[in-house]
Amino acid sequence: MNRLHLIYGEAGAGTLRLALSTEGTEDCVVAFPAILNYAPLFPSFDDAEIEEYASRCGEILHISDEYVEKLNGDMLSFLKCDFTAYDEVVVWHGTSAGDRVFYDMVCSLVSAPLSEVDLSPLRDMLSNPNVGALSMSLCSVDNLIALQERVQPIDAEQKLLAAKRWAGLSKSESALRVLNES
Q1: Based on C-alpha coordinates, what's the Rg of the chain?
Q2: Is the N or the C terminus of the chain less surrounded, counting Cβ atoms within 10 Å?
Q3: What is the pLDDT of residue 180?
């Protein structure tokens, strides 16, 4: 099966690539930069909005112009991915605000059927189950190998609800969004 894994943040993507290669899987892993909670979001996915978002993040985070260009390129590369070229597209997400907004963005962006791996069961696998929000960066290779068996389809209703949340969040001028567990 030709599978694409979508991840929020390069740290988690690197760990997932290692886990998949350990298992002998040649699935593709694509990461979106972990910056969705630093500036007001982009309502559409056009180049000008993405460039503006990267620029705002650069100003807020005081990062170099070179890194802003890299962020812009990484975001555009993710958003322009041909999701229809894969038999299955899997979005991995945790419970952090950034991960949840990423999930909503992916559901809004990808018209093809989606599957998900929810990191919530990871809480039981961690040595410290009282850890706050879960994200891919907390995962070990062994955690991800165990979790890849939990791929679940995202039904049309869930996907529509997430796309509506994205539409609402991306209209807001707020830079930080706090989402509850429900």
Answers
A1: 16
A2: C
A3: 42
